[in-house]
Amino acid sequence: MNKISENQKFENWQKYLLLLFALFLALVLNFVRVGINSESSLENLARGSLQPEIALANGKPTIIEFYADWCEVCREMAPAMITLEEKSSESLNFVFLNVDNQKWQDLVDFYEVTGIPQLNFFNSQGTLKGRSLGSRSLEQLESITNALIKEQDIPDYSGVGDASKINSL
Predict the structure, then answer these.
(1) Residues designated as active site
(2) Whose CB has fewer CB within 10 Å in the chain, the N or C terminal residue?
(3) pTM
(4) Strand bridging mode 93-98 / 118-122
């Protein structure tokens, strides 16, 4: 009888140890996926941004960024976008749309998002003025936002182009 209870104790101990290891592994995997912050910068940006239809109708120029959480370039650009939003939010709208969220699939299709990050630039009347595909430095983003605010042409950078055949909403 004593031997059985010792085996049961050992098995229970193994179960608790396995449970603790599984919890530890889940925490490590979550940390790796999300990073040091409990919420990613991209999620915070998206959560705090205006709805596209409101941004395009409120009389301010707008930048819509199409991104994905798994996109390295999008994550690398997030600090620059945060800086821009802090500097320019009084005169410019920022909208962040996750391409993996089915809620935005109609806009992904409408604006022909073929790569990320894709930034779409709209004037204060909600008319699409251009777009950018790929990484942008803070300096490039600042000159683009300044041009939008001043209602000037978008600066000519590699990967930045006219709106082509896309119409605004």
Answers:
(1) 71, 74
(2) N
(3) 0.71
(4) unpaired
Residue 68 and residue 151 in one domain? yes
CA distance 64 to 148: 13
CB-based burial of residue 132 (10 Å sphere; 0-12 exposed, 13-18 middle, 19+ buried)?
A: buried
Helix, strand, coil fractions of the chain, as percent rounded to 5? 50, 15, 35
> Could you read off the pLDDT of 70-121 as tens digits, one per residue?
999 999 999 999 999 999 989 999 999 999 999 999 999 999 999 999 999 9
Determine the Cα–Cα distance for residues 98 and 152; give it in Å rounded to an integer: 28
Same structural domain for residues 63 and 120? yes
Domain that holds residue 2: 1-36
